[in-house]
# Entry
Amino acid sequence: MKILDMYNENKTILSFEVFPPKKTSPIESVYGVLEELCSLNPAYVSVTYGAGGTASDNTCAIASRIKHDYNIEALAHITCVNSTSSEVESVLEEFKKNDIDNVLALRGDVVPDIPPKTDFKYASELTEFIKSYGGFHIAGACYPEIHPEAESDITDIINLKKKVDAGAEFLISQLFYDNNTFYDFTKHCRLVGINVPIEAGIMPVINQKQIQRMVSLCGASLPAKFVRIMNRYGDNPEAMRDAGIAYAVDQCVDLIANGVSGIHLYTMNNPYVARRIIEALGKLL
Ligand code: FAD
# Structure
C-alpha cells in the first residue's frame, strides 16, 4: 500500500523505525523484535540501510518479512553516498522482487575511510533517479533543527523543496526534543510551498549514553526540562528509562493535539519502550 494514502487530517498515524542487526549477528536475531513491534500494529515500519555497506544487505529481507509475515507495510531506506547508479538499480530490483514499493531515499553520511562515490551528490538526485526508474513511492528525510552540514536554515529548506519537487511524497523528520522547533519548521516548509505530510521523529531517551551519542551524531538541542531530567536520573537506569518514556509520551500528546500527520518512533529495536508509549497514548491514537 502507498504510505501516502495512510495520512488523514483527522488522525495522526504512528510508524516505527527498526535497524538490521550488526554484520556479526545473524538476521534471525532481529526476528523477535519484529514480532513484538508488529504486534503493536503500527501504520508501517521503516528499516534502515547502512550508508557504508554495513547491514544494508539485510534491509530488504527485513522489510520483506515485515510486509509478508506480519502484514504491516514496510518502508525500506536506501542511501546513495557510497553507491553507483547501477548499484542503486540492483537494490531497487531486489526491492521490487520482494514487493517492497515504499522507499526512503537518503544521501547517507560519508563514512571515514570510504571515499564517497560520485553518481549522486544529494538525496534529491537519488529521488529523481528512483522516480524515473519507476514503480516506487518515495519519502525523504528532513531536519527541524537544520541538517548539520547546511549553510543556513534558509538554504536547507530550499534544498528540501528540491527533494520534494524531485518526487518525495512525504517527509520524516530527524529527532527533536522541543516540539516548538518542529512546529516552526513545519510552518517554514508551508511558507516555501512544501505541502507534503511531515512525520515527527521521536526518539525516547532511555539512558544517558544514548543521548550523548545522539547529540554528537545529529546535533539535537536539549531543552532545560530535559537536561534537568538527565541530571537527576542519569545515574539511575530504571528511573532514567521511565522519565525518558514519560518525556516522549508528553511530546507525542502535544504533537497529536496539534494535528501532526504522523509520529515516527525511533524504536532502537526496543519493543518494551514502544509498547509503554503506545499504552500511555491509549485512545489518542
Ligand atoms: P540530503 O537531502 O542530500 O541533504 C544533505 C545536505 O546537503 C543538507 O545539508 C542539504 O541542505 C544539502 N543539500 C541537499 N540538496 C542540495 C543541493 N541541491 N545543493 C546544495 N546542497 C544541497 N542514514 C543512513 O546511513 N541510513 C539510514 O537508514 C538513515 N535513515 C535516516 C532516516 C531519517 C528519518 C533521517 C532524518 C536520517 C536518516 N539517516 C540515515 C541519516 C542521513 O543519511 C544523514 O542525515 C545524511 O547526512 C543526510 O541525508 P539526506 O538524505 O537528508 O541528505
About this structure: The two ends are 20 Å apart (CA to CA). The chain has ten helices and eight strands.
